[in-house]
Amino acid sequence: MAEAFLSVDGVSAYYGRAQALEDVSFEIAGGATSIIGRNGMGKTTLCNAILGLPPAHVTGSIRYQGQELVGLASYKVAKLGIGYVPQGRRLFPSLSVDEHLRMIAPRGRSRRWSIRDVYDLFPRLNERRRNGGAELSGGEQQMLAIARALLTNPTLLVMDEPSEGLAPMIIEQLVDTFRSLEQEGLAILLIEQNLGVATAIADRQLVMVAGSIAAETNAAELLGDPELQRRYLGVEPLAESA
Prior knowledge:
Largest sheet: 6 strands, mixed
Shape: globular
Radius of gyration: 18 Å
Number of strands: 10
Helix content: 25-40%
Order of helices and strands: EEEHEEHEHHHHEHEHEEHHH
Number of helices: 11
Strand content: 25-35%
Mean pLDDT: 89
Number of domains: 1
Low-confidence stretches: 238-242
CATH architecture: 3-Layer(aba) Sandwich
CATH superfamily: P-loop containing nucleotide triphosphate hydrolases
C-alpha cells in the first residue's frame, strides 16, 4: 500500500515544559481537509510543526510523500512542495505587491504558477501592484499571502486561519478560490475556527481539542449535530440562541 500524501504520526510538541500537542495522528491522501477548533487548542503549533518553524520542540513523525519533516529546516520543507499561508499574513509593510511576488517568482517555464497566473487569479492585486503591504485592505493582504504561497508551486497548501478578520463578502470570494484550487489538484490543509468556512472548503473535518484530535467527521455531520458543535467548538446553534 502506498504511503499517504501527508502522514502525521504520534506528534507531540512542547514549549519548554508546557505541552501544546499530544499524540496527534492523521493522514491526508489529497483533496481538502479542515482542522477546526477554538483558539488555544494547538492548531497553529501543528502548522509550525509541519512547516518546521520554531520554537516548539516536536517529537513523533511527520512524513510528506515519504520524506520525514521533523528536524528538517523550514526552507527545505518548502522545497518539498508545501506552501504556507500563515495566520496574520506576515507581509512586509514597505514592499509593494509586485515586490512581494518577485522575491518568490519561480524561474523556468515548467512551473505551474507565475506572477501573471496569480494576477489572473486575483485581478485586484494587479490593480494594487504598486501599493505597499501596509496600504492593502485585509482581503487584499490575504490574497497576497495566498499568491505568495502559490508562487512556491506547492502540491500541498497549508492555511492557518485564512478567514480571520475578513468581511463575509471577501470570505465568500476566497472560499470560491480555494475550491477552484482543489479542483485543479492542489491538496489543502485548512486550519480554522470559523465553522462555516471550514465546512464550505472541506468535507473532511478533524476537530482539535486541547492539543489532540478529538473527533473526525464530515461537513454535513458537523453542521447537522448541534451537540458536537457545542461540546468541541463551544458553538451555540442559532435556532437555540435566538
